[in-house]
Design a protein that fits this description.
The protein is mainly beta. It has no helices and eleven strands. The strands form two sheets. Strands 2, 4, 5, 6, 9, 10 and 11 form a seven-stranded mixed beta sheet that branches. The chain has a four-stranded antiparallel beta sheet with strand order 1-3-8-7, with no helix packed on it.
Amino acid sequence: QVQLVESGGGLVQAGGSLRLSCAASGRTFSTYAMGWFRRAPVKEREFVASISRNGASTYYAVSVKGRFTISRDNAKNTVYLRMNSLKPEDTAVYYCTADPYGSSWSNWGQGTQVTVSS
């Protein structure tokens, strides 16, 4: 089992930046992929970004590619999401997730609110 705790959300103006963090515990962090999803009001949860176990491979949703950067520090058991050039449509609750068994995003954090004002 993996426990995840997000932090770093908040209110920012359009064009601004935020960095989200997700601290993991419970299993060896470097053995599993990590990801970020988000859920905007009245919308389905959607994939944002993911990163492989060693950080060599990253994947992004089209809507955030070029603006967001996912990274991880395996020594600190933490994954990050750097968000630049934020837009009002990026407003959502952002969730950190882990795939500890290589099969599905099975562990989730509690979420952190990001609000982008126009």
